Hints:
Layout lengths: L2 E3 L5 H12 L4 E2 L6 H4 L2 E2 L1 E2 L5 H15 L2 H7 L1 E4 L3 E6 L3 E5 L4 E4 L6 E4 L2 E6 L7 E2 L2 E5 L2 E5 L6 E5 L3 E4 L2 E3 L1 E11 L4 H20 L5 H16 L3
Antiparallel strand pairs: 1-14, 2-4, 3-7, 4-6, 5-17, 6-17, 7-15, 8-9, 10-14, 10-17, 11-16, 12-13, 12-15
Helix pairs in contact: 5-6
Amino acid sequence: MLLHVPQVLTAEQVAHCRARLAQADWADGRITAGYQSAQAKDNSQLPEDGPIAHELSALVLQALSRNSTFFSAALPQRIYPPLFNRYGGGQSFGFHVDNAVRYDRSRGGAEPIRTDVSATLFLSAPEEYDGGELVIEDTYGTQQVKLAAGDMVLYPGTSLHRVTPVTRGERLASFFWIQSMLREDAQRRLMFELDVSIRRLTQDVPEHPALVQLTGVYHNLLRRWAEP
């Protein structure tokens, strides 16, 4: 499932992130790439153990905790602390698949996180740069994603994807991975669609007797499929 999640960050939060990133010392983006990805990766990345990275990562996590669409779609069990990257001057990232497992360095590198869902949170407005589209090979074809600052896209970690060269301006983003309670993308899609339907029915016909039954179906499916 590929999903656009709008306004994860407010305009004020985006401005704060960008001001802090302007003060940061950037490193070669290959510091977190696996062997194969490192051959295709050309960007800058904020070192994840620095104070600015910790501050902005906490800001993004707090915003995610208030976003019902994110929770409904990802059903997060663990979230890898958000990272931050920058593309400019023709930089790009060729086609690759994300590592299946990441180790959370904020917890001593001891906790493995399965990358069921990948996320990119845009921090630059589309008109500020040329290129920089996130290209995702989806089951329904090739999707090109370039969202408003503060918006996020979720997509399966199994997807082949790339970032096209940024030929003008600068593309800033946060990226991270989610280990979902549901390993399979098809299951997450069904649960998301069911949750959206329940919420719409709650708004339109709040006293409808089917609401209790549908909510029960949702939780019983989650109980059956969720991994501990």
